[in-house]
Amino acid sequence: MATIRDVAKKAGVSVTTVSRALNGYSDVNEKTREKIKMIAQELNYSPSLLARSLVMKKTKTIGLLVSGLRIEGSKDNFTFEVLCGVNDCAGELGYELVLISTDSKKQQEKTYNQLCKERKVEGVILQGIKTDDPYLDEVLKSDIPCILIDIPIESDSVGYVTTNNKDGAQTAVEHLLNLGHKHIAMINGHSQAFVSRERLAGYQAALMKKNIPFNESYVVNGAFLEDTAERETAKLLKAHPEISALFCASDLMAMGAIRAAKKMGKTLPKELSIVGFDNIILSAYSTPSLSTIAQDRYKLGFEATKLLTNLLEGKEVEKNKVLQTTFIKRESSIENHG
Amino acid sequence: MATIRDVAKKAGVSVTTVSRALNGYSDVNEKTREKIKMIAQELNYSPSLLARSLVMKKTKTIGLLVSGLRIEGSKDNFTFEVLCGVNDCAGELGYELVLISTDSKKQQEKTYNQLCKERKVEGVILQGIKTDDPYLDEVLKSDIPCILIDIPIESDSVGYVTTNNKDGAQTAVEHLLNLGHKHIAMINGHSQAFVSRERLAGYQAALMKKNIPFNESYVVNGAFLEDTAERETAKLLKAHPEISALFCASDLMAMGAIRAAKKMGKTLPKELSIVGFDNIILSAYSTPSLSTIAQDRYKLGFEATKLLTNLLEGKEVEKNKVLQTTFIKRESSIENHG
DNA sequence: TTTATCCTCCAAAACGTTTTGGAACTGATT
DNA sequence: AATCAGTTCCAAAACGTTTTGGAGGATAAA
After folding, report:
1. Which of A23, A252, A333, B196 minimizes the number of CB atoms within 10 Å of its CB?
2. Residue A88 near residue B17, CB atoms below 8 Å
3. Is the confidence at residue A119, as pLDDT, over 90?
4. Do residues B173 and B283 share a domain?
5. Is this structure's pTM higher than 0.85?
6. Where are the transmembrane segments (chains A, B) (predicted)?
7. Alpha helix ranges (H) inside A59-164
């Protein structure tokens, strides 16, 4: 590997001059600069980012810390799409991306700070972390700039990006109400997720607007899992046969719900309308295809990266961003003829 | 940030001793070692990997270079699952993972070597690259250790991991033959993919074994895309109404094929049996659900990482690995009553 | 007592950059 | 002739580690 010294020697100048020539400083003659550039190319020289980072104390590297990067994530692709967004934005802005994945086992060995400092990242994007995760406290105490995905907390060095979950959920439920459904249940995620609380709030707001009393037994938790949702839906529908529509806090859970309903012998969507949340790939392929609230996960990642780099470069701008959802009508929700 | 010097000063020893104490060398008194460890912890010291890498000329970092990391990849999840495998294995072995994504635009700016050297990766795993990609030549010329996914090329510094595509394809087609299908067409990917050639070979081998002549017009290319596959399937089925079964070189293309057949008014699987390849999530959810040849993409990534680290650590072992496929029977393939 | 051996420790060099604070020249202005 | 202002260059320090090649002292062996 050619170093800056090799270039300097061959060009007959000092390393200082090579450095300044290549970095576009004005105090070097254009002729020497050209010569140096030529020689650099000739020697196939490219500066060691290691050495540079060491002296500049800047790595131009951000980390995407995901808790539980598992193959199961394939089903909703949340992580992957966020990753794509982060990657694209980081690329555009000249940042490197390192992937940091943890699980509870790893978390006991290394603190958040260690993880970040070791990997020499300047800032971090956090995805897939629960509100009761011990890392969350560390993030808030640490001075490493950080953007949280789907956890609305803000501080000097912390910002967040999320979706307008309440609005989205409200839209979904209003859609069902407008179709004439009176008994609308909800399959929620779990209470350690901000998004679940928000979506529940949206569900309640929609009912309230129509003066329909909130029935607590109409809301069950499916843990954002297909199987759990299937079980819970089965129980729910058995206990409350009057239910004619379901709002699921995730499409994946809606898949579980569909399966449960089918197993009970219901014809969908005639006997049960379902609206999901996320707009995952599957939702377009299931039978019936799923009406859903689309959220832009790619943009979630992209905006998170934008916010983070702003933070890193000391720009005084908003430290949070809330994205809007889009309603997508498919086959799974139709008028109620109950 | 505390440096090694701070620790040394506070402990009243030299930096050498701190370094050697913390790195487990034997030439330091256990009492001093304990003291140093205490102080290091107290100061929340963790060594700068930058400085270390600079002097050791080792970064313990591998790169996953993916060509075209796009959101469209969500549909088959190939990249994501490989990524999970790479990530898990790298984590186990103590390597860091940086994500390098390119596209044709970026490739014109930076050569493969530049990309790798700049990012200071010791080795690379290449995924999603076509056989006519200019990077491939560079890889072979470069001395950076590299493992190719699904491109069986080997050299001193290059290995590969792939799936036994021929076997898989042959199994698929034999399954259809055993169901009594006589006119089996194939929707292949494109000629710039090794896997396509292999799968075609498997298709031909299966026919050959049953003494069925190979009919060139029965094989069309769907470019691994759902839409293209849909168009090509429609054309194919119109031109050859006798076709009763389809082997698709990817599940995604099978989805396109299913759509094409449905649009033509065919009842599936009664009028057309289909077998795919990959076992993507969708294949279990489509109607009809798709019989397919499953390949383990997670393992592809995991094994690639294992091979790469072996290469990096100079172990004299096999530089390639071929994984086996599994056949999964679902609804889309049934007996031929033509 | 001398010599050899072991145990602890350390000063200095090295890794490949960037930045600081001038130096040396040229040409123009007084 | 002396001063000033550019322009172009450079030596040396700094970043935070690891490694090399001993030094010094204590103990054991001669």
Report:
1. A23
2. no
3. no
4. yes
5. yes
6. none
7. 78-92, 104-109, 112-118, 134-141
